[in-house]
């Protein structure tokens, strides 16, 4: 096999309340090792979950516009909460100039192989009309259990090992023992996917399937970026720009706790 021809350069921006965007960013990097990445989050405003939909929309627009100022070819809304509450406003503000890709829980592929299925999500998303609508649309006759995971996103955000263990154990206790697949309904959860698998896996049963959204949104963002006319050609430049509540900084130390964060930091130029 000859050398890979990546063609035009591509710059992908990702936004989230916190470090949940690392999973999708790492998937973009795996698919396009040359991609420039802009990671825009809002540590000053954490957590977003308890905020009103109007406040979430306002903060999402601020975070997205900080990323858009770096002129990316596509923007991934790597946050389930922002996708639920702010996606229409983000698209109204930024498209068609900047393609905006939202994050949807991977319920459809999870139920395709039968069930039963559990959806792990934040308390605000669990039982919401949005999530119930996706279940009604895609689940058909498959048994689906909604599992609230209070505190898990925060534990992952701050790399609090004890809190991660405790919150995963609490959610696993609410997950039926016959579940064959778990949908990771918050982007933060994908950073601890194997710990979730270990907590839910039952002895003697086939390996538990986990369904996140990072791979799908990364692929979609690269497709949308490739559709843009006039993408600038150039040499490989896998740069990484990190915006924390609009400030250009390094990746937070907690991000380096996770393999995805270390992968991204390894190709980040020094600021």
Order of helices and strands: EHEHEHEHEHEHHEHEHEEH
Number of helical segments? Answer: 10
| Number of DSSP E strands | 10
- Overall morphology: globular
Question: How many distinct folded domains?
Answer: 2
Walkthrough of the structure:
- With 271 residues, the protein is an alpha/beta fold.
- It folds into two domains: 11-103 and 214-265, Rossmann fold (3-Layer(aba) Sandwich); 107-211, Rossmann fold (3-Layer(aba) Sandwich).
- 39% of the residues lie in helices and 15% in strands.
- It contains ten helices and ten strands.
- It has helices at residues 22-31, 53-68, 80-94, 107-112, 129-138, 152-157, 161-173, 193-200, 214-227, 259-265, and strands at residues 11-15, 36-41, 74-77, 100-101, 117-121, 144-148, 181-184, 209-211, 240-244, 247-249.
- The strands form two sheets. Strands 4-3-1-2-9-10 form a six-stranded mixed beta sheet, with helices on both faces. A four-stranded parallel beta sheet has the order 6-5-7-8.
- A hairpin with a 2-residue loop joins strand 9 (240-244) and strand 10 (247-249).
- Helix 1 packs across helix 9 and helix 2 (53-68) crosses helix 3.
- It is globular, with a radius of gyration of 18 Å.
- Residues 1-6 and 229-236 have low confidence and may be disordered.
- GO terms for molecular function: glutamate racemase activity.
- It comes from Streptomyces formicae.
- This is Glutamate racemase.
- It holds the Pfam family Asp_Glu_race.
- It is an enzyme of class 5 (isomerase).
């Amino acid at each position: 096999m000859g050398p890979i021809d990546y063609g035009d350069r591509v710059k992908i921006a990702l936004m989230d309340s916190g470090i949940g965007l690392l999973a999708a960013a790492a998937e973009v990097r795996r698919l396009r090792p040359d991609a420039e990445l802009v990671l825009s989050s809002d540590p000053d405003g954490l957590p977003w979950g308890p905020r009103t939909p109007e406040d979430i929309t306002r903060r999402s627009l601020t975070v997205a516009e900080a990323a858009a100022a770096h002129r990316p070819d596509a923007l991934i809304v790597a946050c389930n909460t922002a996708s639920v509450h702010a996606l229409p406003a983000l698209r109204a503000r930024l498209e068609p100039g900047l393609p905006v890709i939202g994050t949807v829980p991977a319920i459809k592929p999870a139920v395709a192989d039968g069930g039963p299925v559990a959806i792990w999500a934040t308390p605000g998303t669990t039982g919401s009309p949005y999530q119930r609508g996706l279940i009604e649309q895609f689940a058909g006759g498959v048994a689906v259990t909604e599992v609230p995971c209070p505190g898990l996103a925060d534990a992952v955000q701050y790399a609090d090992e004890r809190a991660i263990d405790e919150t995963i154990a609490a959610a696993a206790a609410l997950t039926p023992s016959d579940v064959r697949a778990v949908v990771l309904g918050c982007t933060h959860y994908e950073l601890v996917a194997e710990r979730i698998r270990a907590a839910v896996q039952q002895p003697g049963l086939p390996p538990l399937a986990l369904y996140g959204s990072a791979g799908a949104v990364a692929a979609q963002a690269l497709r949308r970026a490739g559709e843009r006319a006039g993408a600038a050609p150039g040499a490989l430049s896998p740069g990484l720009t990190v915006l924390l509540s609009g400030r250009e900084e390094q990746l937070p130390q907690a991000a380096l706790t996770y393999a995805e964060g270390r992968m991204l930091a390894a190709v980040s130029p020094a600021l």
